Amino acid sequence: MKKWDADFIREQLGLPGCRALLRLDKEVRHKKKLPSFETRYFVSSLDPSVVSASEFQDYIQRHWEVENCRHLQKDRYFEEDKHSLRHGGDRWTVLTNIALSLTRLLYRGERTLREVAEHCLINPATAAERVHLYLLISI
């Protein structure tokens, strides 16, 4: 990495916290297919004179681990990426986090979180009992 790369990103592209520009070349292999190569670029506010290349790699891997687990599930089950809310977007995020956490609490051997959610829709009283909520039903 050259110092002017981060300077250019910071000044010309308007990212004031940029201290490092990273390039990650990745080889992707799938069974019975030729490998493909991907290049990804990252912008970081971490000081490259303090953080090593392997530490940057660890940060990137941890970021994608979170993205691939929690955010993928939120998008798959709640279509979070399709929602564009002008107001209350943070509330939508909180609600989907609660829903995903409750769904995980309710998991009892179903194959997917979607199956858990469907069982909750079919019988909400049983779902409430699983998380120790007691419903008062008035007729």
- Nearest-integer average pLDDT: 77
H and E order:
HEEHHHH
Helix content: 40-55%
Count of DSSP-assigned helices: 5
Largest sheet: 2 strands, antiparallel
Which secondary-structure class do the elements indicate? alpha+beta
Key terms:
alpha+beta, 139 residues, 2 strands, elongated
What can you see in these coordinates?
By secondary structure, this protein is of the alpha+beta class. The protein has a domain of 49 residues. 51% of the residues lie in helices and 13% in strands. A hairpin with a 7-residue loop joins strand 1 and strand 2. Helix 3 packs across helix 4 and helix 4 packs across helix 5. The longest helix is centred in the middle third of the chain and has 26 residues. The N and C termini lie far apart (69 Å). The model has no long low-confidence stretch (mean pLDDT 77).
Layout of SSEs?
Blueprint: H1 3-12, E1 20-28, E2 36-44, H2 53-78, H3 89-106, H4 113-122, H5 124-130
Antiparallel strand pairs: 1-2
Helix pairs in contact: 3-4, 4-5
Give a short synopsis of this structure.
Helices cover 51% and strands 13% of the residues.
